[in-house]
Write a structure and sequence with these properties.
Helix content: 10-25%
Order of helices and strands: EEEEEHHHEEHEHHHEEEEEE
Number of strands: 14
Length: 266
């Protein structure tokens, strides 16, 4: 099977294990079916903006050309840093976009990736956000009516928790035992100032996420298509947005959004 097209991040479906899909040329390919097979990835030397399609020498914010990066609402600093979002004040690059993406319910959550971390996501992005980060367990901590408020709660919790994932540790194996996320939720919720207590979520469900991985790499080597434009390996699994290969190489699909590639599955 040969597939040619511009990469976009893997879409996913919560299942046991997660189902992953690669969209190229308007076709969805069930990537789980590629596990155990040899895959060749060849960069065709062209990067296209995932928003406007124009050719770009450099990709910004995982797939955008510079003009789109500096003008689109989805690349604004208030998306990357929710505490800086000002859509609730009527300040946005595009208020129509913000009404659909910023001025809606957001969750502050705890998840277990390389360790326990805190994060923020739209209610429409659960469990997709957790899967994209390679989380194995997750629980909702707070729910807010707009993005900036969730960001402020996250900032409070950053004093006690990491908000980043150590991707190398996340890809080195599974969590040995289930953490007491409910107990941790109660603990960290107690650290929040009184003004945020009303937003604590009463949803105490713990979501477990199992990934389609035959074998985790012992020593991780990251593939960068601009430095290594051609690569072949046996696909051993998928976790987060990473393809894991038999020689320890890992390929971050999302990092290569917009790259024109040919993929051969043997």
């Amino acid at each position: 099977m040969n597939i040619l097209g511009n990469l976009l991040k893997l879409s996913s479906e919560l299942n046991n294990p997660v189902n992953y899909f690669l969209n190229l040329k308007d076709n969805d390919y069930h990537v789980n079916n590629f596990i155990g097979k040899k895959i060749s990835i060849s960069f065709q030397g062209e990067i296209n903006c995932i928003a406007c399609g124009r050719k770009t020498n450099k990709s910004f914010s995982q797939g955008y050309c510079f003009p789109c990066f500096t003008t689109l609402p989805e690349t604004d600093q208030g998306v990357i840093r929710p505490e800086l979002n000002r859509a609730h004040e009527g300040i946005s690059r595009n208020m129509d976009w913000s009404k659909k993406h910023d001025l809606i319910d957001h969750y502050v959550y705890l998840s277990v990736t390389s360790g326990v971390k805190v994060g923020v996501t739209r209610h429409t992005q659960i469990p997709t956000r957790w899967i994209d980060q390679g989380a194995e367990y997750a629980i909702k901590l707070a729910i807010t009516p707009y993005r900036q408020l969730a960001g402020l709660i996250e900032v409070e919790l950053k004093a006690y928790l990491n908000d980043k994932t150590n991707w190398r540790k996340m890809l080195s194996g599974s969590v040995n035992e289930e953490p007491d996320l409910l107990g941790l939720k109660d603990e960290y919720a107690g650290y929040l100032p009184e003004e945020y207590q009303e937003f604590i979520s009463d949803d105490d469900e713990i979501t477990q996420i199992i990934y389609p991985v035959l074998k985790y790499p012992a020593k991780i080597k990251s593939i960068n298509l601009e430095k290594t434009p051609e690569f072949t390996g046996m696909l051993m699994g998928i976790k987060g947005q990473y393809l894991l290969f038999d020689d320890g190489s890992v390929f971050n699909i999302r990092k290569h959004n917009g790259f024109l590639v040919e993929i051969e599955v043997k």
